[in-house]
Fold this protein.
Amino acid sequence: MRLAGHILSYQWVDFKPVLTIYDGEQVLELDLSDVERIDMQVGKERVCVGVMSDEEYSPCPNHARLTGSWSQCPECARPFIPDLSCVFEPKCDGSLCGGVEFCSRPHVVYLAMTGNLMKIGMTSEKRERQRLIEQGADAYAILRHEKNRLEARKEEKRLSASLGIKQAHSKRDILSQMKKKIDYDAMKYTFSGIMKDVFPPDSSPPDFHVLRDYPMELPLRRVPFLRPTPGRHSGRILGLKGRFMIYDAPGIYALDMGDLVGRRTRISVNFK
């Protein structure tokens, strides 16, 4: 199967990783969990993905070039979030932008574990489990429920500082965990110790959730080498977890699939 076009999104539908591609005429979805071998040629330039809804897709009218981690230009993002900087640092509870749903809806603050790494994060309450799968977490717990994004961000920073747990990890550190066997018992033991610092002794700790159905067999025989996104990626897929596709070329390599979004790509795949 061969495809060519503009990558609109990389997302997880439960534990199924899906690339969405606009070929100039229609929006197509490629389920990567069914792919055995892949050959991709990825362009350098990133262009706004436009606006996609359940009903239709509209390309960016300005073909705006992207910078940073955004997938949309300010004009295309405006109906959903008027100020893109509020994705990371919300300025209000949504009221300054007319009650925009992105910021005003309930959020949660979580503790995520990926191998030996821990992080404190926050996300929309309705995307709780999906967000942790997108990050490739092996286990997680919800520490706080907050009424909006601003309050969740404040609590995320407070818990991160008080517990001494990071809010993010480097790609290199995340990939280093793929050479290790996942020890869920050790994770739960560590989690139980941390909960003593978060909740009073007479309270019930939050549930400890395990995520173990990624299309990836771990441990790998070596830590994957992260290849630059632009260029060619060709080989046998070893698995996908969070942002990363791991492939054998030979040698074990990683591609940051989130960085594909906005790029033009030619893809040839062989299915299992």
The chain has a mean pLDDT of 95. The first strand starts at residue 2 and ends at 13. The radius of gyration is 20 Å. The first helix runs from residue 74 to 77.
